[in-house]
Amino acid sequence: MLNITTIKKYIKGIEDNKKKVVTVSILSKTIGIKEEIIKEDLITLIPLINFDDSLNLRDYLSDLKKEEEKIEEGRIVKKRIVKNHEAEEYEGIIDYIYKNACVEGGVLDLGYTLTPKDLSIISKLLTEEKKKRK
Description:
Number of domains: 2
Number of strands: 0
Helix content: 55-70%
Distance between the termini: 56 Å
Largest sheet: none
Structural class: mainly alpha
Radius of gyration: 24 Å
């Protein structure tokens, strides 16, 4: 079954290839997915893919793009909401930074990167700090 990630890989692999004819074996070598898996995924869109090894996938690029659009339309992206109890386990912004972005001994880890969840928790903690100050 095709998912959005694999279909994007197939489209990108075909578009990025400079050859006029892109077969399944060429696409396989380009994107690093076995030929059998590519054939299995694309059998619904290209019924002759198992019988003809010299089939040019560039001819079916528009069909792949239509399939991508159809999958994108039906896709629902869930938004991650930070619950209050996740922010309540910290006393304040300093406590959050100390517990998450510091190594042993309280030294700030410069390699720490903030995730969207971290930013949401920090935002909640900052609004609480602002309410305390007023």
